[in-house]
Amino acid sequence: MSALRIAPDAKVMLKHGAGGRAMRELIQQVFIGDAQPPADGGIGLAAMDDGAAIRAGGQWLVMTTDSYVIKPAFFPGGDIGRLAVSGTVNDLSMMGATDVAALTCAVIIEEGFPRADLERIAASISAACAEAGATIVTGDTKVMGRGEIDGIALNTAGVAFTRRVIPDCGLRPGDKLIVTGTIGDHGLAVMARRHSLDLQGDLRSDVAPLNGLIRRAIEAGGEQLIAMKDPTRGGLASTLHEMAHKSNVGIVLEASRVPISASVQAAGELLGIDPMHAANEGKAVIAVRPGAEDRVLAALRSHSYGRHAAVVAVCVAERPGFVILDTGFGRRLLAEPEGELLPRIC
Amino acid sequence: MCLGVPGKVLTVDGSVATVDFFGVRRDVRLDIVDEPVEPGDYVMNHVGFAIRRIPPAEVKETLALYEQLLAAISSEDLLAADIRGEIAATREKK
Amino acid sequence: MNDAGRNAMQFRDPARAAQMASLLERLVGEIGREPVSVMHVCGSHEQAIARFGLRAIFPRALEVIMGPGCPVCVTDMPEVDEAVALAEDGIRIATYGDMLRVPGTARSLADAQAAGAKVDVVYSVTQAQQLAAKLDEELVFFASGFETTAVATAAVLLGSPPPNFSILSAHKYIPPVMEIVAEMPHTRVEGFLAAGHAATITGCAIFERFVERHRIPVVVAGFEPLDILAGLAKLLELVRDRRPEVANMYPRCVTREGNRRAQEVLWKVFRPVGGRWRGIAHVPNGNLRLRDEFARFDARRRFKIDVSRLWDYAPPSLAHSCICGDIMAGIASPSSCSLFGKQCEPDNPVGACMVSTEGTCRIWHQYGGQLDLRDKDERA
Question: Which of A124, C44, C227, C328 makes the best surface tag, with the fewest CB within 10 Å?
Fold first, then answer.
């Protein structure tokens, strides 16, 4: 019977870019196939980590690339320029490579795009680079016809060296998970603006380069800091699912410990969106061995981007691959978001 | 079926109120609410429309209804609930 | 936190919730039968139950069935087809986010959007009306939701919307479907938890005739954890005492008469007509359609909507194997459906229960096929 049905994935849909299971499956099936991991013990495409690690003498060369399209290009708390620098710096940082050697930046512009906007984006790129201590060393500019691209798209790539690569797996029962601050800020700020929801208040994207913050965490945690991942698309829920899945552990998340700002909480209630499903662009999830959480937490909280850091979850042997949410009333399995987040009326 | 969220009225301008939803503000239409709404009142919002002015006294009334229900449970039941609460608290500490 | 914030938290007190759970346990014990089955008819109740993990503290012998409480899920395929056909004809469609992925016979609005159709997601019908005012083209608002939401649509039509604005109504009216469920053969439902926000509009007196006819209690409840637990406790009390009555456990929003002004607005614009609810049945008076006075805003009368061409190319329907009706009637669970998790998945739903985030099957699928983690807790 099912053979008669049109294959649901015959076309690429928005959900395939939403950061959830659909996207992971698409990448796995189309791009990775049976690609083998690098022979030198490095991290390659098949690991589906934040970036790659290639052995370079006594240390590792970490590489990552990301493309950025966002509507609107300017949003409360940032813009596509700050996003493009922060996203790539953060992907490097999540691999443990916090000293950015160089960035590249390519920009594709739609004919008719206001020059003033382009200059604002460029200024924002420079400011974010200065903050991250990074430099753009090469770039590319293309202009496409009207309607061939929607406004502007950016791509950045980054390279950095590190002595120790930190993966996004390797968790064991007992390990603690820290989030570095309030969650859902970026997702709800952008969504409120995108659908013209006319919400007033302190909804601002958290977009920021995290390498300074992560450096402090690594210094404090040392070898006891075992894994990191930034909860971007798909939010905290997706990131925890991915970590649980890759490490084959269960993760118990305490709802009451998850830092959420009043505005995000309120907007979430109003729009029927779970902040744990909403994107972050200036947050990390850090896994540490038991006993190391307090010193890593203290180091994070000493940085302005980590003031609201909190231990939110613990790894368990039960239910490997699942995230269990303890709501304070009872426990349930946390759902992984599927597809683009949309405001609900029901 | 109907996502309703309560909020506090900040200002009223004709048939539109600006309502604080404890962290974000949004304009809410007053066309279909059946009582006059003033700043300081609480309203229930659904899809950008106030469907009800919530009298503060009735929040208390709701809570009183719950107390009445709970009054029916015996002391053993309450003890059992406390023990369950403690188990939950211990689990949290783990 | 301000006063109302504190008030909201009073309804989210886990210690009180544990006490309520003990009360439920005791009441089920006093009834002395297993299982005691009650039904809620509101997707938002299920959302709250899931979000706060309340099933984990329900007594094992209490079965809380999710009824046909999601207006999005029960929107029938031909209704979605109408919106898709309009969108594919180049008409701009605005709709609530919930409707975007609801499948029609062949496609959803999201599919149409991916193929280039103009589809906008809005939070409020007001926003759709404002969008129309800014445009030089026709804009059709594909309106879904129960009476609570239909009142908002009606209010916009009564305020003079721009001439290029029209409504494709898929609005539904809840009271008639409760009759259908109560009359289903083999139904095990011993009491109903009624939807607090629909009752805010209609008032709880509307359930009095129902209770008389079917001798089954109805409790109106709100949406905070304590609201739901207290509503269930009250319902179990009525079941225990064999008292078929209407009880209002949501007095901060619901009155006996309801919101008269909203009722006037609703019935001035809409009239109830019979129609199919997806996966359930033909529901007499279950659909809300625009009255003749508002014909000029009725997309069905403004445009010639040709849905048959969608059907010519429709893939064979799996709908005949779908058991959503039985699931919503409380006589089957998703695990007994042959499509569940196979041909029918959240990304690619067949029946109503897999469509919306609050659908029974969707929730089962997302939470690993089972919601409550009671066993695990007890062993821990």
Answer: A124
Query: Which of A36-50, C79-93, C223-237 is least confident?
Result: A36-50
Work out how many domains chain C is built from and give that number.
2
Residues B49-67: tens digit of each pLDDT: 999 999 888 888 888 888 8
CA distance A18 to C108: 18
Q: Which residue has the higher pLDDT, A111 or C328?
A: A111
In A, which residues are within 8 Å of C195 by CB distance? Answer: none
Amino acid at C69: G
Evaluate whether residue C233 is within a structural domain.
yes
Is C126 a domain residue?
Answer: yes
**What phi-psi label fits residue A249: left (phi over 0), alpha (psi between -120 and 50 degrees) or beta?**
beta
Domain assignment present for C15: no
C257 in any annotated domain? yes
On whether both C278 and C335 belong to a single domain, the answer is no
Residues C57, C169 within the same domain: yes
| Cα nearest neighbour of C198 on chain B | B2
Whether A339 shows a pLDDT value over 80: the answer reads no
Mark whether C86 and C116 lie in a shared domain. Answer: yes
Cα separation, A92 vs A62, in Å, equals: 7
Residues C66 and C165 in one domain: yes
In this complex, the residue of A4, A15, A345 whose CB is nearest that of residue C98 is A345
Overall average pLDDT of the A147-170 stretch? 95
Give the gap in angstroms from C-alpha B79 to the nearest C-alpha of chain A. Answer: 17
Q: What is the CA radius of gyration of chain A?
A: 20
With beta carbons less than 8 A apart as the criterion, state whether A261 and B23 touch: yes
Radius of gyration of chain C (CA): 21
Q: For an interface test with A, give the residue of C42, C64, C121 to mutate (most A CBs within 10 A).
A: C121
- Pair (C119, C27) in one structural domain: yes
CATH number of the CATH domain containing C255: 3.40.50.11740
Cα separation, A29 vs C37, in Å, equals: 45
Q: Which residue of C has its CA nearest to A346?
A: C44
- Note down the domain range covering C231: 21-316
CA B37 from centroid of its chain's CA atoms: 17
Residues 6+ apart with CB under 8 A from B34: B52, B53, C259, C260, C261, C262
Q: Would you call B13 helix, strand, or coil by DSSP?
A: strand
pTM: 0.90
Q: Tell me: do C98 and C109 sit in the same domain.
A: yes
Q: How confident is the model at residue A197 (pLDDT cuts 50, 70, 90)?
A: confident
C3: amino acid identity, one letter: D
CATH fold, domain A176-333, is Phosphoribosyl-aminoimidazole Synthetase; Chain A, domain 2 (3.90.650)
Give chains near C: 3+ CB pairs under 8 A: A, B
Asked whether the beta carbons of residue B1 and residue C22 sit closer than 8 angstroms, the reply is no
**Residue C62, SS3?**
strand
What is the per-residue pLDDT for C237? Answer: 96
Cα A252 to Cα A229: distance, rounded to the nearest angstrom: 17
DSSP string, A169-186: ----TT-EEEE-S-SSHH
pLDDT, mean of residues A114-121? 97
Same domain, C282 and C345: no
Q: pLDDT tens for residues A136-150? A: 999 999 999 999 999
The domain spans of chain A are: 54-162, 176-333
C91 residue type, one letter: I
**What's the mean pLDDT when you consider all of chain A?**
92
Task: Give the single-character DSSP code of A13.
Answer: -
Predicted pLDDT of residue A104: 98
Residues C52 and C193 in one domain: yes
Out of C316, C332, C356, a domain closes at: C316
Q: CA torsion sign, C327 to C333 to C335 to C341?
A: positive
User: What DSSP assignment string belongs to C132-166?
Assistant: HHH-SS-EEEEE---HHHHHHHHHHHHS---TTEE
